[in-house]
Structures are given as structure tokens and as C-alpha cells.
Amino acid sequence: MTDQRRSSFINFRGLEDSDPETDPVAWADICGDTTWEGRWVALDSCTYNDAGEATAGLVVDYDDNLAELCARLSAERRKSCSVVFCAPAESAA
């Protein structure tokens, strides 16, 4: 992933017409978007289920490489993000 593309998504906050501070994106919606398939996704302002799994949040960054994602999050001093893997969709073959 190029540096330009990475930095363009670092401040991604969800849908254009939503309020980023109050409208987290549901995990099911994130998993349904091909942008995130097979990638590690950093979520901030998360909500969690009883098992402690993130169920919604604001997408603040993503990467194919977990180490690179964590390095950027650390450099940005984002200490409260949940990092989750968005598995690729099952093929219909």
C-alpha cells in the first residue's frame, strides 16, 4: 500500500453524511465492504458485545500488514483503538 493511500485513510471516519463523533460503523457493515476484506482494521470509539468483541467503531486506519498498522497507530499515539481482522468473504466457487 502506498504512503499516499495509507495517509488518505488514516482519518477516515465512516460514511460521508454521518457525524464521525456519534455514528460508528457496525462491524457487520465493515465486513461487508470489499475495502476492508483481508485487512487489519483499527477502530476507535468502539462498542463491544458481552464477549468483549468490537461490534462497531470509527475506522481510523487499516493495512494488510499488522505490524505496519500498529507502528502508524503508535506514531499517532492512538492507544485506545481495537485492531481487528476483517476476513475475506467466502468464495462462491
Summarize the structure.
The protein is an alpha+beta fold and 93 residues long. The protein is built from three helices and four strands, in the order H-E-H-E-E-H-E. A four-stranded antiparallel beta sheet has the order 1-3-2-4.
Please render the helix and strand layout as text:
Elements: H1 3-10, E1 25-26, H2 27-31, E2 39-48, E3 54-63, H3 66-75, E4 82-86
Antiparallel strand pairs: 1-3, 2-3, 2-4
Strand order of the largest sheet: 1-3-2-4
How many separate helices? 3
Oligomeric composition of the shown chains:
single chain
Q: Number of domains in the coordinates?
A: 1
What is the radius of gyration? 13 Å
- Give the strand tally: 4
State the separation between the terminal residues, measured CA to CA.
28 Å
Structural class call reads alpha+beta
Tell me the helix content.
10-25%
Report the biggest beta sheet as strand number plus sense, adding barrel if it closes.
Answer: 4 strands, antiparallel
Mean pLDDT over the residues: 78
In N-to-C order, the SSE pattern is HEHEEHE
Low-confidence stretches: 1-21
Query: How much of the residues is beta strand, in percent?
Result: 25-35%
